[in-house]
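Design a sequence for this backbone.
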């Protein structure tokens, strides 16, 4: 089975040349993507042992570079094959890349992650960034991955179309892949690898604030949509209950307005789901009714227990938030195009 090493590179140094030669000797076809490095870096690409060098005229980001390589493989590589993505900055050892490729060949329905142990001299930004994104993945998708920022990943040809469907053009793309895989309950397997950092990590182009913002984008949008909908729900409840004195009826009326708003915001702004909304709407309606009944019962019970109605509403909604969030991310707003892109297990064998 043919093995490809897909390496996106932006303004590399001489490390790239030796790295690609080692991979060639290890049996890999090396596919390089020059992400707009410029003419002054052309010699490094030309001196490499790549079977093919794809180029962007200007820097478009790591996600875009990976997708350029994936599209080339989809259109030109002869099946079956294994792909391992690796960074161009010398962090990944050929022996570790071989292990990831072996694991991917054995598990065609899995995404294989080269997992660093973060022992020894690891830059503080790498430790903090990984810890933060690890927590984010746990909260947003319910999955626990030790090394969320690893660029060493392996997979079989059957996952290429799905990977091309995942949103993201820059560093957020790799996190989006994990989020999408976790939501679809794809098998994520880890292979322990060595942690290698050059002093100062000079060839890394990860920009902490900007790229962390991109990685956090979906979680922040979800939180903003939830807070906006809650504000509408809470405000309308206070108005209706003050005007009518009817606690249950006011809660129902407020929830109907806020549920419609939340569905629209989550579908279009948070998850970016395209196509027919019928399936998502039915599932969301079922969730909304369940939460509405639960909310109405709890608000009424707390109010009868002596709690001021707005306070009862606030306590109830905070308690139901986590339940609502978990159900939405797992069962309602799974992107349709990514579900279609995932092959059936029998197609991978």
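Sequence:
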């Amino acid at each position: 089975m043919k093995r490809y090493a897909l390496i996106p590179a932006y303004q590399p140094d001489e490390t790239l040349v030796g790295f690609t030669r080692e991979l060639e000797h290890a049996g890999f076809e090396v596919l390089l993507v020059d992400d707009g490095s410029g003419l002054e870096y052309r010699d490094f690409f030309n001196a490499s042992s790549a079977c093919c060098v794809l180029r962007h005229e200007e820097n478009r980001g790591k996600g875009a570079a990976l997708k350029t390589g994936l599209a080339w493989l989809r259109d030109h590589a002869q099946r079956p094959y294994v792909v391992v993505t690796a960074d161009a900055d010398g962090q990944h050892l050929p022996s570790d890349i071989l292990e990831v490729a072996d694991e991917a060949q054995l598990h065609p329905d899995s995404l294989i992650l080269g997992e660093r142990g973060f022992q020894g001299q690891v830059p503080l930004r790498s430790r903090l960034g990984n810890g933060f994104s690890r927590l984010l993945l746990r909260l947003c998708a319910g999955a626990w991955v030790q090394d969320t920022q690893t660029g060493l990943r392996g997979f079989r040809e059957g996952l290429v179309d799905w990977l091309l469907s995942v949103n993201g053009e820059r560093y957020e793309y790799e996190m989006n892949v994990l989020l999408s895989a976790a939501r679809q309950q794809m098998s994520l397997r880890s292979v322990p690898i060595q942690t290698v950092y050059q002093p100062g990590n000079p060839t890394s182009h990860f920009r902490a604030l900007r790229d962390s913002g991109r990685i956090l984008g979906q979680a922040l949008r979800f939180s903003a949509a939830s807070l906006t909908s809650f504000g509408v729900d809470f405000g309308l409840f206070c108005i209706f209950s003050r005007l009518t004195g009817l606690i249950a009826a006011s809660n129902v009326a407020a929830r109907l307005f806020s549920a419609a708003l939340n569905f629209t915001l989550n579908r279009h702004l948070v998850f970016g789901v395209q196509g027919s909304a019928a399936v998502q709407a039915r599932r969301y309606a079922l969730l909304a009714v369940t939460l509405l009944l639960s909310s109405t019962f709890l608000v009424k019970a707390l109010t009868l227990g002596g709690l001021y109605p707005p306070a009862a509403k606030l306590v109830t909604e905070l308690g139901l938030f986590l339940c609502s969030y978990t159900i939405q991310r797992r069962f309602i707003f799974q992107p349709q195009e990514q579900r279609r892109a995932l092959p059936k297990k029998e197609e991978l064998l």
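Residues 208-244 form the longest helix (37 residues).
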